[in-house]
Each structure stands twice: as structure tokens, then as C-alpha cells.
Write a structure and sequence with these properties.
The protein is α+β, with helices and mostly antiparallel strands. 38% of the residues lie in helices and 29% in strands. The radius of gyration is 14 Å and the shape is globular.
């Protein structure tokens, strides 16, 4: 499944590069699950996404992506919340909104 995640990220970066957008990207790992996530940001447009691997109830891996509310994410970081903290309380509902991986480049470019 890591190959699927890498393929999705490569496709997003390619589509954005075609439009002249080069997002900042950094890897983060949830302390609890140890699964890889990547935060991609386009600070000029104040847009960010989280994309990575999650497990379903049967412990099968799948790629999951979220739009990040840029201002609420920054607030949480300043207040000292880490990714695990955010996902273990209701704060994640305010910060993250589901998005399909194939919609990420459109979100960065058009905001949809």
C-alpha cells in the first residue's frame, strides 16, 4: 500500500507542477500507529492537506486524505497540539475535512 500512497503523491506533485505550483511537503508519523503521513502546503493560498496511510477496522491499510483548515491547524500547533492529540479528540472534526487523493491538486489550484 505504500506504493499506492507514493503513486498518489507523485501524481499530485506532477499535476501541480504542470500548473506552476510547488507545494511544501513534510513527512509526519503518528506516534500511535507509526503510519506515514505527509502534510502538503501551499502557503500563498493558505491551503494544506494531510495524506497518508490509515487502517480500517480489519487492520487493512488504505490511503486517506484530508483538507486542513489552515487557520485552525496553525492555532492548534501554536497551542502545542500534535497530530496524535488532534485525532484523539473532537478537534480533528474542526481541522480536517475528507478529500479524495485525486481531488487534491484541484483543491490547491482552485480551492475546490
Amino acid at each position: 500500500m505504500i506504493n499506492k500512497l507514493c503513486g498518489d503523491i507523485a501524481q499530485i506533485i506532477y499535476e501541480l507542477a504542470e500548473c506552476g505550483v510547488c507545494p511544501d511537503m513534510r513527512r509526519v508519523i503518528c506516534n500511535k500507529s507509526k503510519l506515514p503521513f505527509y502534510i502538503m502546503t501551499h502557503t500563498d493560498k493558505e491551503r494544506a492537506v494531510l495524506i497518508g496511510l490509515m487502517t480500517d477496522p480489519e487492520d487493512e491499510l488504505y490511503v486517506k486524505a484530508y483538507k486542513i483548515d489552515f487557520h485552525k491547524w496553525n492555532w492548534a500547533a501554536v497551542e502545542g497540539f500534535n497530530l496524535d492529540d488532534i485525532f484523539t479528540n473532537d478537534l480533528h472534526r474542526e481541522i480536517f475535512k475528507d478529500v479524495e487523493a485525486h481531488q487534491i491538486s484541484s483543491y490547491f489550484i482552485k480551492g475546490t
